[in-house]
Design goal:
By secondary structure, the protein is mainly alpha-helical. Helix content is about 55%, strand content about 10%. The protein is built from 11 helices and 5 strands, in the order E-E-E-H-H-E-H-E-H-H-H-H-H-H-H-H. It holds the Pfam family BTB.
Length: about 220
């Protein structure tokens, strides 16, 4: 992963043993060494930033060690998530690769589906939106990504981008649809939505949820007034 994680402040408490009052022992079936990774953490931060860890600490208030076993994510994925939870910022790079995009989506997925961390979720989503808004090349399809291309062939672009995300479809779909609905509402047409439905039921679902979340589309629903 070539995108960068940087502390937002000079002295970040990530893995800081001096003030630590609990350790996370992380293990994953994805790590070939089968070694347990140890992180020096802080109950107040974990409880404040993650519902997963707050529930663990509520059930074990005097715990000195929290065991975390994950069959989906490796140490690198978990550590990236934990850094963002501790306030690291995700620095977008110019023309990121597909793997870079997946790395950010991994952070978003962990925050959303396992660890319950709205701040981390928002940070990952904001980074993806920045990439989508400013980069010159598409990270998945390596085609030109410009305002003109989006306007000229919005329907096929959106569908191809979403479909090309493969196993990351759901996570990318939610973020992508959220971005598109907020930034390009006027480009969504009934034909585009029908195309979404034909291509992917989950794509159509994500798009419609995003549309509803942002109050519908006036030029489709007749609610201009």
């Amino acid at each position: 992963m070539t995108w960068l994680l940087r502390p937002a402040i000079d002295h970040n408490l990530f893995n800081d043993s001096q003030y630590s009052d609990v350790e996370i022992h992380f293990s994953s079936s994805w790590d070939r060494t089968k070694e347990t990774s140890i992180y020096h953490c802080h109950k107040a931060i974990l409880s404040m930033k993650s519902t997963f860890f707050r529930q663990k600490l509520d059930s074990e208030p005097n715990a000195k060690v929290l065991q975390v076993k994950d069959d989906r994510d490796c140490k690198d994925h978990f550590e990236a998530f934990l850094k963002v939870l501790y306030g690291y910022t995700i620095q977008p790079i110019e023309n990121p690769s597909r793997e870079d995009i997946k790395g950010i989506i991994d952070i978003h997925r962990q925050a959303t589906t396992k660890y319950g961390s709205p701040d981390v979720q928002a940070a990952a989503c904001a980074t993806l939106q920045t990439i989508l808004r400013h980069q010159k090349e598409d990270p998945c399809l390596t085609v030109n990504y410009t305002e003109m291309d989006l306007h000229d062939d919005f329907e096929s672009y959106v569908v191809c981008y979403y479909r090309d995300c493969g196993p990351y479809e759901t996570d990318m779909g939610r973020i992508l649809c959220e971005f598109l609905v907020k930034e390009y509402t006027t480009l969504l047409t009934e034909a585009t939505l029908q195309h979404m439905i034909r291509e992917s039921a989950s794509f159509a679902r994500d798009a419609l949820f995003a549309i509803l979340k942002h109050g519908g589309i006036p030029h489709l629903t007749g609610d201009e007034h």
